[in-house]
Write a structure and sequence with these properties.
Blueprint (H helix, E strand, L loop, with lengths): L1 E2 L6 H13 L2 E6 L5 H12 L3 E4 L3 E6 L8 E5 L4 H12 L2 E7 L2 H5 L3 H9 L3 E4 L8 E6 L4 E7 L4 H9 L7 E8 L2 H13 L5 E3 L2 E4 L8 E3 L4 H14 L2 E5 L12 H8 L2 E5 L2 E5 L7 E4 L7 H7 L7 E4 L11 H11 L4 E3 L4 E3 L8 E2 L5 H10 L7 E2 L12 H11 L4
Parallel strand pairs: 1-14, 2-13, 5-6, 9-10, 17-18, 21-22
Antiparallel strand pairs: 2-4, 3-4, 6-8, 7-8, 10-12, 11-12, 14-16, 15-16, 18-20, 19-20
Helix pairs in contact: 1-2, 1-3, 1-7, 2-3, 3-6, 5-6, 6-7, 8-12, 10-11, 10-12
Length: 412
């Protein structure tokens, strides 16, 4: 059995950086993820005037509930969706003029539901190019608060941004959600807000956020459950065993449930409160699975699906089309390159059993496509990636870590 240590959660690190900046006092974040996305978020906070000190094992942030120390700043969000969506909400609670832009990839991703909600709350903001997308200018003068309606059907991050900024408003927020994907990510947000001293109420689809100050904290970041899907899938695919320490039934992250999907697929799964082990049994079953709540792991399942003994159908995952790329289409394209029969619809993909052939994978600049189809390569020699470096977004050491597993399992 192999043990693999997975880097810290991107989702938890981004939320923790927001909470640390919003809380009065000094917050220490232990074992944060150091990747392109989280470094971009930290650089954004520095551009806004916050004090951020980054060491190898801990980051220290001096918070300021009144909003950014700088009255004027420009922030480049790189490819980071959390940076691009959370920081405009953070600055809106302050005072000043703040300009945001992002990479071409992030400019294509939607922002409109969040900015419409902020405007509904009285925030003065302008989309400088295409409406509902970066670049964006926020002329901040604090947020009074009150009631707002939000469509979170494309991304739960829109709701998280409003929840996180709610305690910084003068009157608190009453947020009614008309649609919501990736609901477990909202549970991460609520649990982390609790750790920083704020309890959010809920009545059905309405969230009640009090105007209550955050408390600085000493907070440890758990491993990234989405990233853990790759070694877990690798074990299921190759008939080997891997344990991920620090991630289990006590995890904040919904994507830990990907292990349950592997169990339905035929793998043996053991989960304690703080570890998960997957062991391949030599067989993968076909299945139909709704992955609306764990959609970041859709490419991982798609990449090992050809080796199942029946069709694998993944449903209710339209929001994967508005990620770093159209992930449903990217999965289908690459499976076809590998000679695998596949069909897709608006919010589903169905993959049929096949023996993949060698091919170059089109990553579309998407770390999850690159990492997922690297796992396919454990059973299909000759698979290459056109952009292997795009894994730096969340797991810069991914290729070395996968090579370590391969060697440990004797697959060389």
């Amino acid at each position: 059995m192999s043990i693999m240590y997975v880097p810290g959660s991107k989702s938890v690190t981004a939320r923790a950086l927001f909470l640390a900046a919003a809380a009065r006092g000094t917050t220490v974040l232990r074992r944060p993820l150091a990747s392109d996305d989280t470094e971009g978020f930290a650089e954004g906070l520095l551009a806004l005037g916050y004090r951020v000190e980054r060491g190898p094992d801990a980051w220290t942030i001096e918070g300021r509930p009144e909003g950014p120390p700088s009255g004027e700043a420009e922030v480049f969000c790189r490819d980071g969706a959390t940076t691009a969506r959370f920081l405009p909400a953070l600055v809106a609670a302050g005072h000043g003029v703040f300009r945001f832009d992002a990479s071409a990839q992030m400019r294509r991703r939607p922002l409109g539901p969040l900015t419409r909600a902020l405007r509904e709350l009285g925030v003065d903001l302008t989309h400088e190019g295409e409406e509902g997308h970066h670049p964006l200018t926020v002329r901040a003068n604090g947020i009074k608060g009150g009631r707002v309606t939000l469509d979170a059907g494309l991304s739960s991050q829109f709701l998280t941004a409003l929840l996180l900024v709610g305690p910084l408003t003068h009157e608190g927020l009453e947020i009614t959600v008309t649609d919501l994907v990736s609901a477990p990510y909202v549970e991460i947000t609520l649990a982390m807000m609790r750790s920083f001293g704020v309890e959010v109420g809920r009545a059905g689809d309405t969230f009640l956020v009090p105007p209550q100050p955050y408390t600085a904290a000493d907070y440890t970041i758990e491993p990234d459950a989405s990233t853990a899907s790759y070694p877990l899938a690798a074990a299921a695919l190759t008939g080997n065993s891997v344990t991920i320490p620090g991630l289990g039934s006590g995890s904040l992250q919904g994507d830990v449930r990907f292990a349950e999907v592997l169990g339905r697929l035929g793998a043996s799964v053991e989960m304690s409160t703080d570890a998960v082990t997957v062991t391949g049994t030599g067989r993968l079953n076909g299945l139909t699975v709704n992955m609306r709540d764990i959609s970041d792991t859709v490419p991982t399942l798609a990449a090992i699906a050809p080796f199942a003994d029946g069709p694998v159908r993944i449903e209710d995952v339209y929001n994967t089309r508005v990620k770093e790329c159209d992930r449903l289409e990217a999965c289908a394209e690459n499976l076809r390159r590998l000679g695998v029969p596949v069909t897709t619809g608006r919010d589903w993909i169905e993959i049929h059993p096949a023996t993949p052939r060698p091919a170059e994978i089109a990553c579309h600049g998407d770390h999850r496509i690159a990492m997922s189809f690297s796992v396919t390569g454990l059973r299909t020699p000759g698979i290459t990636l056109d952009e292997p470096g795009c894994v730096k977004k969340t797991f810069p050491g991914f290729h070395e870590a996968l090579a370590g597993l391969r060697a440990g399992w004797g697959l060389e």
